[in-house]
Specification:
The structure is a single chain. With 361 residues, the protein is α/β, with parallel strands linked by helices. The protein folds into two domains: 240 residues, Rossmann fold, CATH 3.40.50; 117 residues, Heat Shock Protein 90, CATH 3.30.565.10. It is built from twelve helices and 15 strands. A hairpin with a 5-residue loop joins β1 and β2. α3 packs parallel to α5, α5 runs parallel beside α6 and α11 packs antiparallel against α12. The radius of gyration is 25 Å and the shape is elongated.
Length: 361
């Protein structure tokens, strides 16, 4: 379906210095493959999609789509637009048109379909992404997830068999990510060829049949998601996929802003799509602070989440103490019961700085 050989894309800084956004990249993608593209910011992920769709022209290399050289001067770009669709982060729907109008417009203007033909195809596609009931709504009346599904439907209606998606869930509220992922899983089962740039490791791992890891313009890894996430070949890949997101607080006085801390913890849970873990995490922190309320030594709190394993934890270091608050004879029994009920496992370590408790969620 797609063959890329020695692809290079160079940009020039304002000071005249050049840098390689893509540096000698080669790969082959068969029809029906779903490729997730991961890597740190600035690694070349979005640039790769833009070059494949000719939104950017490469400085070197070749791109064959279904055997045709799309970089040849004689190649009609209109043909590429019909074969390959691009779904952006920000949906790019026309706000003055209904959902149906957003889909029928390119069908009539680009493909030359009649109004009735365009409407029939648009409704069929909307039904495929479970949006038929929203056909007459304007984009501003839809949720973020519904807008992204409408953008995907617009591309599918054009008959594209290759779909390029640049961070399709990054602009969504975490509660809406699941509905877009569900549509992508459905499209994968339908045999659509997809390249998905994403920072969501779960999406990269669960939907894709292959994963690319791009770092500083180089394609460092091209393997199955299982191999890349469990047995990465490069140190850079290992560091990236095992990245743990953390939120840390140090409570030294009673003037500490507890309300702001709890708000940050809730936002952390939403940012990393952990709504089901929000209550256990916040309850453990609140009840532990209740147990520690009578003690005046500093308290260190961490909330951690691993994209790779999906595991989350709360770590509390009660500095200067030698006995776990959960074991104190004067501990509030209800607080202890709530904490133990919210955690799947509790580990207690005595460190030189005090008692460190890790609560697995």
């Amino acid at each position: 379906m797609i063959t890329v050989s020695h692809l290079t894309k160079t940009f020039t800084h304002a000071d005249g210095t050049a840098f390689h956004a893509l540096d000698d990249i080669s790969f082959h993608i068969d029809a029906g493959e779903v490729v997730s593209i991961i890597g740190p910011s600035g690694g070349g992920k979005s640039t790769l999609l833009r070059v494949l769709s000719l939104l950017e022209r490469p400085n070197g290399g070749s791109i064959l789509v279904q055997g045709e050289d799309i970089l040849a001067p004689s190649y009609p770009q209109q043909r590429l637009r019909r074969q390959m669709g691009f779904v952006f982060q920000q949906f790019n729907l026309f706000p003055h048109l209904t959902v149906l109008g957003n889909i029928t417009l390119p069908l009539t203007k680009v493909l030359g379909l009649s109004g009735s033909e365009a409407r029939e195809r648009a409704l069929e596609t909307l039904n495929h992404v479970a949006l038929a009931e929203k056909a007459d709504e304007h984009p501003n009346n839809l949720s973020g997830g519904q807008q992204q599904r409408a953008a995907i439907a617009r591309t599918l209606a054009m008959g594209s068999r290759i779909l390029l998606l640049d961070e399709p869930t990054s602009a969504l509220d975490p509660t809406m990510v699941g509905e877009v992922q569900g549509v992508l899983r459905l499209l994968a089962k339908d045999g659509l060829t997809m390249l998905i740039v994403t920072h969501r490791m779960r999406l990269a791992r669960d939907i894709a049949s292959r994963t690319f890891f791009l770092h500083q313009g180089h394609l460092l890894e091209d393997d199955t998601p299982s191999n890349i996430f469990k047995h990465p070949k490069h140190t850079e890949t290992q560091t990236f996929v095992q990245q743990i997101h953390s939120l840390r607080f140090d409570i030294a006085t009673r003037r500490f802003d507890f309300y702001d801390m709890m708000s940050q913890i809730r936002q952390f849970c939403l940012r990393y799509a952990l709504p089901e873990k929000m209550d256990p995490i916040t309850h453990i922190v609140e009840e532990m602070l209740l147990l520690l309320g009578n003690y005046h030594s500093p308290v260190h709190i961490e909330v951690n989440h691993s994209e790779l394993s999906g595991a989350s934890s709360v770590v509390i270091l009660h500095q200067g103490e030698t006995l776990s608050p959960l074991e104190r004879t004067d501990a509030d029994e209800l607080a202890v019961m709530i904490i133990r009920g919210m955690s799947s496992h509790i580990e207690t370590d005595l460190t030189p700085n005090g008692v460190r408790l890790t609560f697995d969620i």
